C-alpha cells in the first residue's frame, strides 16, 4: 500500500482509495475517458468484471451488495456509459442498497460544451441517488471517495455517484486518505428513543392481535436474529415484504409469508384484523398497503425505521421510533413482555389451513406448473441464493421458496426492473462463490440483459439461469386476462429465441425441460456441472399468480385465480 | 397554509438544483425561494415559502433534511420572525403625474431609483401585504414591468436558526 503522502496521478489515487475502502471487485465497462483508470486497474489487485452493458454493471454491483452487505461498486465511461447506469442506480435507490457508481466525464475544460460523449450525469442522477459528486479538483478526490462510501453504507443505505473528469485522473496529487468523514449536514440516528421504545413495549403487552410487518431494513441492519427473538418472545405472527424475504425464517410457525397484492390471504387478513402492527424497516409501499385508507385500519401502528422521512409518509403512525432496527429491536426485547395473542395465533392457524398457497398440482402431469419448479428448487438446494427478474416468476419465487437466512433472496422490489435478475445474480455469485446462485427468470425479463451470457462464460461465473418460459410477458398478460378480456396486446413473445442454442452459442450449458419428471434432474445436472447453465423450463403458458389483490383495492379484497381442471 | 422555512445549506454548486429538484419530484409547490451566502461563507441560507398543511410541511422538512448538503431546516413562525421582500416597479409616468406617484412612494417609505421622461423605477421593501398595497396604488398609472425577490426572513432576538 502506498504511503500517506506519495505523489501520484488521480487514476492511481482512485485505486488507492478503493483499496482503503476494502473494495475487491468492481463491475464495469471501459471507454475513452476512463483509459487512465483502466490502465491502473490492469496492474491492481482489484478484480474487474467486464460486463457487456453498463446497466448490468450497476445491477451486478447491487447483487454483490445484497449478497454480502458490503458496498457494491460499478464503473462506466462518460455519456452513454453513464446514462446506461441510470436504471441500475434508480433500482438501488428504490431498494436502499449501498452502491458507489463511478463515471468518467469529459475533461473539465469541455464540461458544458456538449463535447463528444458528454452527459450531465450528476444532474441526471440527482433524484435517484442518495448523493452525488462531480470532482472538480484532484485534491478533493480522496475526500470525496471517502464520503461516497460513508454515505452509501450508513443510515438508510443508497447509491452515491462520483463523476470523474478525465483531467482529474491524469492530474497529480500528494495522496493522503482522510481518516474521518466530516459532513455537518449528515448524521443518521442509530439509537432509538427509549421513551418511545417503552411506549411500544406497553402497547405490545396490551394488545391481543399483533402483527409484525418487516421489510428490507431488517436485512440491511442485520436485525434478523433480534426480529426472530422478538416474534417468539411476544408471540406475534410475522409477514415480510418482498425485499424483507429471509429476514425471518420462511419455515417458522409464526411466518405468514408476504403481504399485499400477491401476498398470502392469511397475511392480508391478519393485517386487516390486527390491533397492533409493528412495522420494522418498511416503507408502506402501495403494493403492500393496497387502498391506503383501509390498510390496518383497526391497528395502532409502531413504525421502526432509520429514515425519519418514512414516518407517516404513507400511513399515519402512532408510535414512531427512528433508528437502527437492530438497536431498537434489541432494546425493545429488554422492555417488553408477551402480547395476549394465543387466541389470535389459533385464528391465524385456521386461516393458514383454510387458505393455503396452492396450485393445481394434478395438472402437473404433463404441463409444468411454475410453482412446482420453485418447490423443486427449494428441495434440491434450500440454501441457494435466489435472484429474480420481475414478473410472475418473481412472485412465485417469493411465495413458494422458504428463505431461511437473510441475503438469500435478491429481487428488484421498488423499481420492478425487468432484466435485473441475471446481472444481479452475477454479482451475488462473484460475492458468494460458495453458494448456488439461481436466477429465476421469465423469458421476457431474461431477454432484457441476455447478452451477459458472455460475461459469465468469459469469467467462468457458474450462475444457473432458470427461465420460466411461458411465451408471454406473463404478469402483463395476467392483467390483460383479468381486466382487458384476454386481449393480449403485445405480450405474446412465443418462439422468439431458442434459449438452449443461445446458451450454447455463448459456450454455456443449455438444458430444455418440457416435463415435470425432468425438472429435478435438470436442476441437479446444472448444480453438478459447475458451469454457467441455462435451463429453459417450458411452463404452462396461462398460469396466474394467485391470490391477487387488484390495484387500489383493500388488501383483504382478494381474487382467487386458480384455474379449474 | 403557507410556511416559511429557513434552510442552511453548504455553499456549493448544485445545491439549489438539489433542493428545487426535491420539491419538483415530490410535487410540493414553492411559493418563493431566495438564496444567498451567510455570515459564514461556506454556508448559504435559503428562505423557502411553501404551501401546504402540517403533513406537507412535515414531509418537506424531513425530505430537505435527507439531502446531504442541507445543514439545518427551521420552520419560522410569523410571530417571532422578521420577514422582508423587495420589489422594483417600472411605472409609466410623465410630468403630469410624477408628483402624485412621489407622494405614494413617500407614504410607503419606498424610493425612486430611476427617472426617465416616460417612466420611473420604484424600489420598495417590506412584508408581503405592504408590497401588494403599493402595487395596487401604482397599477392605475401603468406598471410596465415589475420584479419581486421573494421573502427573506430571520428569527427575532439573539437566538438564530443555526444556534
**N-to-C span of chain B:** 27 Å
Estimate the strand proportion of chain A. 15-25%
What is the residue-mean pLDDT of chain A, rounded to a whole number? 96
> Can you count the helices of chain A?
23
Q: Which structural class is indicated by helix and strand composition of chain B?
A: alpha+beta
Mean of residue pLDDT of chain B? 94
Could you tell me the strand content of chain B as a percent range?
Answer: 35-45%
Order of helices and strands of chain B, N to C? EHEEHEEHEEHEE
Query: How many strands in all of chain B?
Result: 9
> What is the number of beta strands of chain A?
19
Provide the low-confidence segments of chain A as ranges. Answer: none
Percent helix of chain B, as a range, is 25-40%
Distance between the terminal alpha carbons of chain A, to the nearest Å? 67 Å
Approximate shape of chain B: elongated
Rg measurement of chain B, Å: 19 Å
Helix content range of chain A:
25-40%
Provide the gyration radius of chain A in Å.
24 Å
* Count of DSSP-assigned helices of chain B: 4
Q: Give the oligomeric state of the chains in this entry, treating copies of one chain as homo and distinct chains as hetero.
A: heterodimer
Catalytic activity (chain B): 2 pyruvate + H(+) = (2S)-2-acetolactate + CO2
Subunit structure (chain B): Dimer of large and small chains.
InterPro entries (chain B): Acetalactate_synth_ssu, Acetolactate_synth/TF_NikR_C, Acetolactate_synth_ssu_C, ACT-like_dom_sf, ACT_dom, AHAS_ACT, AHAS_small-like_ACT
EC number (chain B): 2.2.1.6
What can you see in these coordinates?
The complex is a heterodimer of chains A (565) and B (163). In chain A, 57% of the residues are buried. Chain A is an alpha/beta fold and 565 residues long. In chain A, the strands form four sheets. Chain A has a six-stranded parallel beta sheet, sandwiched between helices. Chain A starts with 6 loop residues before the first strand and ends in a 27-residue tail after the last strand. Chain B is α+β, with helices and mostly antiparallel strands and 163 residues long. Chain B is built from four helices and nine strands; from the N terminus they run βαββαββαββαββ. Chain B has helices spanning 15-26, 54-66, 98-107, 128-138, and strands at residues 2-10, 30-37, 43-51, 70-76, 81-92, 111-116, 119-126, 143-148, 152-155. In chain B, strands 5, 6, 7, 8 and 9 form a five-stranded antiparallel beta sheet that branches. In chain B, strand 6 and strand 7 (119-126) form a beta hairpin. The radius of gyration of chain B is 19 Å and the shape is elongated. The two termini of chain B are 27 Å apart.
